[in-house]
Amino acid sequence: MLKTRNPSNVAPPGGLYSHSVEVPANARWLLTAGQVGVAPDGTIPEGFEAQHDQIWQNTIAILNDAGFGVEDIVRINVFSTEPAGLPHVMEHRKKYLKPDHTPGSTWLVISQLANPKLVVEMETIAAKVD
User: pTM of the predicted model, to two decimals?
Assistant: First the structure.
């Protein structure tokens, strides 16, 4: 069983995340590479929202391939070239994660990703007790 922690002597999280997630010793781990908004056919959708949605689809496929689900995500790191993309990130979290599922999270605004057509990238860490 995964347990989120938000100590009372630390300011509460400012969004849909927890300060920490405790993972038991007997858990399996899955760490994804940074996923970008590239569709299976190699196309890159236009814009932040479409790319971030594709990232979630890619991430779910990777999780499912290893026997994990979105409920097993314990950490999300998002890298974006567009500071205005944060509301879209929050909307996608609401779309794909249950309201009480609040993994640790980091949002970084960077100057560029490896491919200039890409505007957002996401890494996830998942843990699951079978």
Answer: 0.91
